[in-house]
Amino acid sequence: MSVQIIGMIAPQEASETISRKGPAVDSAYVRAFAQAHEHAGFDRILVPASATSPDPLLTVAYAAAHTQHIKFLLAHRPGFVSPTLAARQFATLDHYTGGRVAVHYISGGSDVDQQRDGDFLGHDERYARTDEYLTLLRRVWTESQPFDHQGTYYQAKGAFSEVKPLQQPYVPIFFGGASEPALKVAGKHADVYALWGESLAQSADLVRRVRAEAAAHGREVEFSISFRPIIAPTEEQAWAKAEEILAATRSKQVPIAHARGAGPQQSEGARRLLADAAKGDRVDERLWTAVARETGGRSNSTSLVGTPEQVAEALLKYYDLGITTLLLRGFDPLVDAIEYGRELIPLIREKVAQRQALRTPQRKAA
Q1: pLDDT by residue (tens digit) across 177-233?
Q2: Into how many domains does the chain fold?
Q3: Residue partners of 241: CB distance under 8 A and separation at least 6
Q4: CATH number at residue 92
Q5: Which of the chain's termini has less CB crowding within 10 Å, N or C?
Q6: How far apart are alpha carbons 119 and 79 in whole angstroms?
Q7: Which of 193, 185, 89 has its CA nearest to residue 135?
Q8: CA 56 to CA 44: how far, in whole Å?
Q9: In whole angstroms, what is the distance from residue 124 CA to residue 130 CA?
Q10: CB contact at 8 A, 160 and 140
Q11: Domain limits for position 331
Q12: pTM value > 0.90
């Protein structure tokens, strides 16, 4: 299996270690950020979503207009736009980008953030709504005649779209969430199931459980995992860099917490990150959990630390679990994307190619 490498861009420069400044939308930064990922050899770029951030769909459209071949992963929260309208929006964007769009559906891990946009459903019910949402969405994309839908959360009469996705049968569906309701939705709908950067043992457990849910529907699922690699010429320098990142994160977290009411996320994914962090700052030799612990398990905040060679080897252990998509983003987002393209991504691809070369003779012999 080949490896896919995803980066992440945002409408302005910011991270756990870099304070936000300037306008909420910095078009020059978005353009440079997207082009840097393309030049660095990433396959796809995630554009995240929150209840206070600029619209990710429009950010994808802008970034795609300033790149040539890199693909995009649009974060989208079901529940705020009708699935019939979203189906047409995504299909249209798929055409304008030349088939470079996939969508990552996020049911929501924070009641507070969901309520900013007027969503007061509880956690489990949000996943039930996502199930219906994706069912209706796929029907709009694939059915050739108008149809009616009468469900718990959505009703439509004569639903139909003249525009179908350029990618067939539909725009690829990425999906995340580690709770039991989330895993059931993943097994039914996901083309790619996305994990946060957990330990090898916890990751293997999720892969097994999602595969079982998908098998119940006669389906197969691919897997993605997210890390914040910290690399340096020597291992000692890499760990020193990690400590500098932790110190900078601590200096930024106090004002963020007071301003936004930040605390541990409510999601099962956050709980799992904190469970790894409870084992210590270093797990599986290279997995560094200190920032995840410091930020309450918010977002994909675990790192793999070491030389490029060491981090590539650590990533390949996840590849060997069947996780063939790697989402890599740094704490200094633009600078790190360039460094990954120079130092890390070529090594990952080389090591995957070596594994494939070794497995090909074995398959022929069998």
Answers
A1: 999 999 999 999 999 999 999 999 999 999 999 999 999 999 999 999 999 999 999
A2: 1
A3: 230, 232, 305
A4: 3.20.20.30
A5: C
A6: 8
A7: 185
A8: 15
A9: 10
A10: yes
A11: 4-365
A12: yes
